[in-house]
Amino acid sequence: MDSFLINTIKEAGTIALDYFDQLAEIKIKKKGDRDLVTVADVKVESFIRKKLLGKYPKHSFYGEESGIQEGSASRWIVDPIDGTHSFVRGQYYWSISIALEIEHELQMGAVYAPRLNDLYFAKKGEGAFKNDSKIVTSNVDQLREAMVSTGFACLRSNLEKNNLERFSRIAENTMGQRRFGSAAMDLCMVADGQVDAFWEQHLNLYDIAAGVLIVKEAGGSITDFTGEKIINPEAVLATNSKLLDEILAYM
């Protein structure tokens, strides 16, 4: 199954790149006031869905564009293009995310950034990898020396309780801040030690499922904003574990 998932996500990446290389010609629609969807999102998810369910027809499927198909305790969770806003502007930080959940436990996850040619993969209990090399989270243990990343999906949804005040509190106590535009990639960069922590609110399970497993298998922690060790797309905090208690004080 490992090689099947890796081959599937790479093939999906080739499809996405074909659209990325002809951005001027693809159709871009709005799902909301500030939420975009392209023909690439739909076509990539359709390919992934057909490939996965063709191999495992009894599995359930949860995709950003096609919604939830129930029927089995084994479920594929898919975001065909995480970072559509970056994608349509010709930026490189967008990714494809696929996770396998069995009996409500994440068992396998892959995140692929086609334009960067970076593939992240994890299987429960077997560690996390980037392009076949094992990865671990950083050793930074003080927030003032940390590089952190975040996002603002909450602003696109016009939430009254958004991430701006939290960002200001944390930012002034860190060494650097980044905003990449793909939650799946943000999580992988925590796993890889490129950043030391990531948080965001008002996401969806398909945004984070694969990345959450990759962080955990790289030695990091996943909690909500109170420190509860749960997977909560509405309030997800990923750290290298060493910064968890300190950053929680500013959440």
Compact overview of the structure:
With 251 residues, this protein is α+β, with helices and mostly antiparallel strands. It has helices at residues 2-20, 39-55, 84-88, 153-156, 164-171, 183-191, 205-217, 244-248, and strands at residues 28-32, 35-38, 60-63, 67-69, 74-82, 95-102, 105-113, 118-123, 128-130, 133-135, 147-150, 176-178, 197-201, 221-223, 235-239.
Question: What is the secondary structure topology, with strand pairs?
Answer:
Blueprint: H1 2-20, E1 28-32, E2 35-38, H2 39-55, E3 60-63, E4 67-69, E5 74-82, H3 84-88, E6 95-102, E7 105-113, E8 118-123, E9 128-130, E10 133-135, E11 147-150, H4 153-156, H5 164-171, E12 176-178, H6 183-191, E13 197-201, H7 205-217, E14 221-223, E15 235-239, H8 244-248
Parallel strand pairs: 3-5, 11-12, 11-13
Antiparallel strand pairs: 1-2, 3-4, 5-6, 6-7, 7-8, 8-9, 9-10, 13-15, 14-15
Can you tell me about this structure?
By secondary structure, the chain is of the alpha+beta class. It folds into two domains: 134 residues, 2-Layer Sandwich (Fructose-1,6-Bisphosphatase, Chain A, domain 1), CATH 3.30.540; 106 residues, D-Maltodextrin-Binding Protein, domain 2, CATH 3.40.190.80. The protein has eight helices and 15 strands. Strands 4-3-5-6-7-8-9-10 form an eight-stranded mixed beta sheet, sandwiched between helices. A five-stranded mixed beta sheet has the order 12-11-13-15-14. Strand 1 and strand 2 form a beta hairpin. The longest helix has 19 residues. It is globular and about 45 Å long.
